[in-house]
Amino acid sequence: MEREIKFLISVIIILFSLLRISYAQYDLINGDEFTVEQIIDSNKSSLISVWYFSSAYSDYYSYSDKDTIILSGSGIIFDKRGLAATNFHVVSGKDSIFIKTSNGTFYNAELIYVEDKNDLAILKIIDSSESEFSTIQFDDSDNLKQGQVVYAVGSPLGFEYTISEGIIAAIRDNENVKFNDPYDYSIVERTFDRVIQMTAAISPGNSGGALFNNKGKVIGITTYTYGYYGNLNFAIGINVLKKLIEKINLADIDSNEEYKIKKINILFNTNFKNAENYASKLIYNWTYTRQADTMKTIDSFVIKQDSINKINFSRAEYHYKKCMEIKPDTFDIYQNLLRLYVNTDNFHKAENLYMEIREKFDSDSLINTLSSSLAHAYITSKSYDKALQFYNKMIKNDPNDIIPYIQLGIVYENMNKYDSAIIQYQKAIKIDSMATEPYVKIAKINYEIYKDYKKSKKILLKLLERELYTDNIIYDFDVHYY
């Protein structure tokens, strides 16, 4: 009996030892292997999905747009303060970003750093009551081997925390890749420092997600796939992200002036890109709004496009104004907003903005450029009466400003009222006899329209005598006869 008891005790000790070995096999800290289930369970709280706000979500059946948040991609939390990494293309052009954690909580997030070359972005959770967040663990992507088992986790097509298994098919350095820009469909080239080619399946929504090894550590950021060429999927090596984190010194990010400037530039570029995108769509489809204003028979398609145009106008205007708030001295933004107003027949807004710009920018050359842009917009839309009314109003406010006279002359030229144009140019000369442009305009009309070459020559010679001549005047206007 005593022998049997000793034997049973020995068996129990052996079994207990085996259980300890089995348990230790999946110890993340010691770098041992994990099962697929344990990879998810151990890391889920550090894996996120990235969302953005949109007031442009189109309901196909109701022919209307509605406010909603849309999933854009995936990401990983790597710092307990709520710092997360994702792909830049996941958040590019998004001005309202949200991070959703595994417990279903949504947090506001801000974009604090971008490395466009490697398509990486750093986000920060803001307005959080939590003191610390769970973080992911990185491994070394410089020591990977072909054939290694890998696991991609992300939110493909909105199916959150989807995991797929595969192997490392190849490791590629300085990989050149061409993408289509989602805003203007232009070709964007990137040369990634290191990418991991893998057979683990990824789809839209996986971008920015984690690629794990069988130790449960992140070795890459899933980034792109060749959709129509079989199982060609790629992740950025995690060491690329680690180097970026080390380089930017996240501990000092809030007080570092260089990063503050970079953050401002990111916000500005994001809003500018959005504004230009909405404006181009709007102007392209503005004809439907003009139809909606005049149609006698109801056309549901025209009504829908008109509604979309009005929404896109509000968005474009909003993003241009955000750009003005971020960089209030950027003249081009004012010019683009002015163009938007004129091209969408918002002449009252255009005129108010023009007067605001005149007060803000003390530069004749800039104001002349803007006035020319406004005149061109009036002319392109053939809104001659509105143009005449606006510039005459400007003259009434300031009779000694030559710019409105010159713009009136340009408008009259486009109306084929050349005598009226010359009168306006002569008024400009009377105010400022040293101004070159009105002389050249009159010479051009005499040369091209009236075929009065002698008169044209006389005007240009007068410029020469008064040293108002510039080298390109004659050839710019095809006056080659002397």
Can you describe what's shown?
The chain has 482 residues and is of the alpha+beta class. The protein has three domains: 28 residues; 219 residues, Thrombin, subunit H (Beta Barrel), CATH 2.40.10.120; 220 residues, Tetratricopeptide repeat domain (Serine Threonine Protein Phosphatase 5, Tetratricopeptide repeat, Alpha Horseshoe). The protein has 16 helices and twelve strands. The C terminus is likely disordered.
- Name the helicity range: 40-55%
Order of helices and strands: HHEEEHEEEEEEEEEHHHHHHHHHHHHH
Mean of the pLDDT scores?
83
The level 1 CATH classification of the largest domain is: Mainly Alpha
* CATH architectural label of the largest domain: Alpha Horseshoe
| Rg, nearest Å | 32 Å
CATH superfamily of the largest domain: Tetratricopeptide repeat domain
**CATH fold annotation of the largest domain:** Serine Threonine Protein Phosphatase 5, Tetratricopeptide repeat
Biggest beta-sheet profile: 6 strands, antiparallel, barrel
Report the oligomer: single chain
Estimated structural class? alpha+beta
Q: How are the strands ordered across the major sheet?
A: 1-2-3-6-5-4
